[in-house]
Amino acid sequence: MMTRLFAAVCLSLASPLGASEFRLAWPVDCRLGLDCFIQQYVDHDPGPQATDFTCGTLSYDGHKGTDIALPSLRRMDQGVTVHAAAAGVVAGLRDGMTDAYASPERSAEIDGRDCGNGVVLRHPDGWETQYCHLKQGSVLVQKGARVARGAPLGEIGLSGRTQFPHLHLSVRHDGAVVDPFHPVAGFDAAESCAAPQAPTLAPALWQDDASPRYVATGVIDAGFAAQIPDYDAIKAGSADTAALPAHASALVLWAYAYGSLPGDELQLRIVAPDGTVFFHSRQTLDRQQSQYFRAGGKRVQAPLSAGTYRGHVEIWREGQLQDRDLVVLSQP
């Protein structure tokens, strides 16, 4: 089922009404920074470039929402509920589209239905929220139904035009896109971000207990393997191993991350059960990427010693630690 609210439209950024009481609850049943992360924000650059509300790079040209992403397809398959960010009336919905990566072969299926399976809620005073890329068969509401803040709407999926499982949350006021992190009119990223001082941010639309922290880059997942894993296995959530097979000829630590910039440094370190460093590498990243993975390790001539191996992953930018992760391997 589809309404005109799902049609592809070009919307300019607009402001909420200063003292509006419209506020958003966190819309996903996940813990930000632990089992989900924000991959993309609204694009504030009016030209062909892309700039998020902090003058950072977590956006792409013309992006009109907030993308709350899961680390893997396995986590998606386990079921992650999407909730109404505010009380409202179901103005439109769609279900039945396949959960699959967007590709040229699927363009005819996706064209005009980029949102995939989704729900549009209409709220008082001209506000709307839209929830895209829901899992096939998961939509729980009916058109015209009134839903409370926090009511379940469906689950995060991979439907529509997307390359990773996530919720795309759009917020609109009187039909114009609003960034819930910086809801202000006249914010020209090209001009404001070139100024010597950082732009002054408007109060966000999030409720005080739901305001997400901005993280410019971070580790999505990490793990051990007996060889460098395929990227598809990492995205599927099947690359990690609990213990290496007896015949393994190498021990590899891999890291899956987001938001890289040229010059960022990714450090991988494996500490053996006796506390010695089994492997250590520093890799300088040479380009901006929304998602990427790196791996490193060492060949072994004999079965690994039994015990716990610890994998340390760190992302550094301009001499500052941005994020870290720790994974363990219990070798029998």
UniProtKB/TrEMBL annotation:
Alphabetical keyword list: Hydrolase, Signal
Organism superkingdom: Bacteria
E.C. code: 3.4.24.-
Enzyme class, spelled out: hydrolase
InterPro entries named among the record's database cross-references: Cell_wall_metabolism_enzyme (IPR050570), Dup_hybrid_motif (IPR011055), M23ase_b-sheet_dom (IPR016047)
CDD domains per record: M23_peptidase
Gene3D superfamilies from the UniProt entry: Glucose Permease (Domain IIA)
Keyword Signal applies: yes
Pfam families the UniProt entry points to: Peptidase_M23
GO molecular function: metalloendopeptidase activity
M23ase beta-sheet core domain ranges (all copies): 62-180
Segment forming the signal sequence: 1-19
SUPFAM superfamilies reported for this sequence: Duplicated hybrid motif
Protein name, as recorded: Murein DD-endopeptidase MepM
